[in-house]
Write a structure and sequence with these properties.
The chain is of the alpha/beta class. About 30% of the residues lie in helices and about 20% in strands. The strands form 3 sheets. Strands 1, 2, 3, 4, 5, 6 and 7 form a 7-stranded mixed beta sheet that branches. The protein has a 5-stranded mixed beta sheet with strand order 8-9-10-12-14, sandwiched between helices. A hairpin with a 5-residue loop joins strand 3 and strand 4. The longest helix has 16 residues.
């Protein structure tokens, strides 16, 4: 069986993502409770502290919140494995807990309860089965992965092969994203993804064409607003259909091919390194689009896609209820 995995979530919409990945800390909220290390090491004490800090919380929710805080402060141990499903880059980050519990309100007032973490590997969601994805979508902030820990261990050792990702995921919107990721990775590799990006740009109102496969100089798509491609700016697009991290050298190389009155656009299904993002932020005519943004753009402009591209990612618009989230993160 091997050692189990903890799963720690970084907020409903990934508010703590930078603390996790940039600063190297697992971090959870409930700041009004204060420093957990000064509480008596028993769940009743944690429940009393939560009830005192959040008097408007539902009585039934208090034991759950207290349990999360207790697990984070006392049950998690240095050296144990942890997985973080990022809401920002859409990938799973696997690491080892590298420190004891600490309270640091100065680093982040909203997420002051912290543990140092050493990240070992970033794994695309498409490497997990639907059941594993569903287990990681628990509403709990901190919990043990009990039923699919083997998949997490296999992913850490690069042994996982692509698997179906729908399988009853409780979150319909995220299940749709998983389906889209799978279709993009299976049906639109390499040169085919260049054509898809050109179609996405056309759906957004641009005129776009794919360059020749050989001798394109690293420019995969040319886009512009006018029909003839005379009026500036001309957009030079580089496309990458892999789920890894694109670094500063590749982004800088694209920018080296961008001339006056031109804009560089780098589109990837994966993510960009911090250095690449910093470089792009320093340039007014350079834009990076990561995999999660690609999914957002597809959903926004899907109705304007040509039929052949809709058939590659078949979707249907539906209305679903969304949770009402009052103060203190309590879900009704």
């Amino acid at each position: 069986m091997g050692e189990y995995f903890w799963c720690v979530r970084g907020g409903e919409v990934g508010q703590a993502d930078r603390i996790f990945l940039r600063d190297g800390y697992l971090a959870i909220g409930w700041p009004e409770v204060g420093d957990l290390s000064i509480l008596v090491k028993e769940r009743k004490a944690f429940s009393a502290a939560v009830a005192g800090a959040y008097p408007n919380a539902r009585p039934g929710a208090i034991p759950g919140y207290a349990g999360i805080l207790y697990r984070f402060a006392h049950e998690m141990q240095p050296g144990e494995l942890v997985i973080y499903p990022s809401k920002i880059d859409g990938q799973f980050h696997i690491g080892r807990i590298a420190g004891e519990y600490e309270y640091n309100a100065e680093r982040s007032g909203d997420y002051p309860n912290m543990r140092k973490v050493t990240w070992l590997k970033t794994v695309p969601r498409t490497m997990f089965s639907g059941g594993a994805l569903a287990e990681c979508k628990s509403l709990l902030t901190v919990f043990q992965i009990k039923h699919h820990a083997d998949e997490c261990r296999e992913a850490l050792s690069s042994m996982v092969s692509g698997k179906a990702v729908m399988g009853g995921a409780p979150d319909i919107e995220e299940g749709t994203r998983d389906f889209m990721r799978k279709r993009l990775s299976k049906a639109l590799k390499g040169y085919l993804f260049e054509g898809f990006v050109a179609e996405l740009l056309r759906a957004m109102g641009y005129h776009a064409r794919v360059t020749k496969q050989s001798g394109d100089g690293g420019i995969d798509v040319i886009a512009h607003r006018d029909e003839l491609g005379i009026e500036p700016p001309i957009i030079k697009v580089q496309v990458k259909s892999t789920w890894g991290t694109t670094g500063d050298p590749e982004v800088s190389a694209l920018y080296g091919k961008v001339g006056t009155n031109e804009v560089g656009l780098f589109v990837t299904l994966g993510t960009f390194s911090e250095q690449a993002k910093k470089f792009a932020n320093s340039k007014q005519n350079l834009r990076l689009v990561n995999g999660e943004e690609v999914l957002e753009l597809i959903m926004q402009h899907y109705d304007d896609f040509e039929a052949q591209y809709k058939s590659l990612i078949p979707l249907k618009r539906v209305f679903i209820p969304i949770p009402i989230e009052p103060a203190n993160g309590e879900i009704l």
